[in-house]
Design goal:
There is one protein chain. By secondary structure, the protein is of the alpha/beta class. The protein has two domains: 98 residues, no CATH class; 138 residues, no CATH class. Helix content is 47%, strand content 12%. Strands 1, 2, 3, 4, 5, 6 and 7 form a seven-stranded mixed β-sheet that branches. Strand 6, helix 9 and strand 7 form a beta-alpha-beta unit. Helix 5 packs across helix 6.
């Protein structure tokens, strides 16, 4: 049976299996323990006792589920549990994690808090829906997707996450329907946000080449500088999608995807708490 005790002294293997460093894992456990212990005290004990008795093993199982996105049946083989028990543990633990490590919205953000923000949208592939297929079809990805917009600071820390949108929704439309960004904060965005300068004057966008004309040397330099500035937000997406539940085709109920995207974003942000 796989357990935290067996892995905690193997740092590299632990990081590969969970997607987080050992110290980040222990921070997650520390944050969620009060809620977990409160639940344990209220839980009615009946029938056979669970073979997973520690919070560490529950968190380990959940992170491995996110990391590799294997079936509950396969996780059950690793942790010596029935498939239904794996589902029960994960279903119980996710809301606790969302409570303590989710990305908190800051609607009172001002220039004193942050001078600049990088924004971008990412798409998570989903299985072809039975209904409203056109609404979820992304012309860019040529697949059915769910989109999220994230906002980060210059270091790459996630400041805010939008709600989930259908893959057909344009990036600019998502920004118009998402949380307000103060007008004195500079926004760095890609060409998917053309028109945003009309709503937010302090927006820096790349220059687009027009038909039958070329970009000037100055415009090319501007685009290169902006691209190097925005690479940090692309690195954020890469870090989030190393968890295969976001980096592969999402197979579960779509309504849970926002919760899981938020939890994984909160886990990513732990590195900035040191």
């Amino acid at each position: 049976m796989l357990s935290f005790v067996k892995l905690c002294n193997q740092n590299k293997k632990f990081s590969r299996l969970t997607g987080v460093k050992l110290e980040e894992f222990l921070e997650i456990v520390k944050k969620v323990r009060p809620l977990w212990e409160k639940f344990q005290k209220k839980k009615k004990v009946s029938g056979r006792h669970s073979k997973i008795k520690t919070l560490e093993d529950e968190v380990l199982m959940l992170l491995m589920y996110y990391r590799f996105y294997v079936s509950f049946q396969f996780l059950g083989l690793l942790f010596d549990l029935d498939e239904s028990n794996v589902c029960r543990h994960i279903k119980r633990l996710e809301p606790m994690l969302a409570t303590v490590i989710k990305i908190k919205k800051n609607r009172e953000l001002t220039r004193n808090d942050l001078e600049e923000i990088l924004i971008d949208a990412t798409e998570i592939q989903i299985q072809r829906p039975k209904k409203k297929q056109r609404e979820f079809y992304s012309g860019k990805k040529k697949k059915h997707t769910i989109k999220f917009e994230i906002q980060t600071d210059a270091r790459g820390k996630i400041i805010n996450i939008s709600k989930a949108y259908n893959g057909r929704t344009h990036d600019f439309k998502i920004r118009k329907m998402s949380e307000h960004i103060p007008k004195d904060v500079t926004i760095f965005a890609d060409s998917g946000y053309q028109g945003l300068q009309g709503l937010h004057p302090k927006t820096i966008l790349p220059h687009k080449r027009k038909k039958k004309s070329k970009l000037s040397a100055e415009q090319k330099t501007h685009n290169r500088v902006l691209s190097s500035k925005r690479v940090s937000v692309e690195h954020v997406f890469a870090q989030l999608k190393k968890f295969k539940i976001l980096g592969s085709t999402y197979r579960n109920f779509r309504k849970k995807l926002h919760l899981r995207f938020n939890i994984i974003s909160g886990i990513y942000n732990l590195k900035f708490e040191a």
